[in-house]
Amino acid sequence: RMKALEDFQNKITAIDQIADGARTKAEESRRNEEQKTKEKAN
């Protein structure tokens, strides 16, 4: 019973870490796009 709970928590933690990484990457992409747009505007 404890083992199953532990496995579940480990999976949730891994998913959270992947989601955080994806979120960070998306924010970086958005910033890069904004920068390119600003450079084109100038």
UniProtKB/TrEMBL annotation:
Remorin C-terminal domain segment(s): 1-42
Start and end residues of each stretch annotated as Disordered: 19-42
Basic and acidic residues composition bias: residue spans: 22-42
Superkingdom field: Eukaryota
Pfam families noted in UniProt: Remorin_C (PF03763)
Family: Belongs to the remorin family.
Protein name listed in UniProt: Remorin family protein
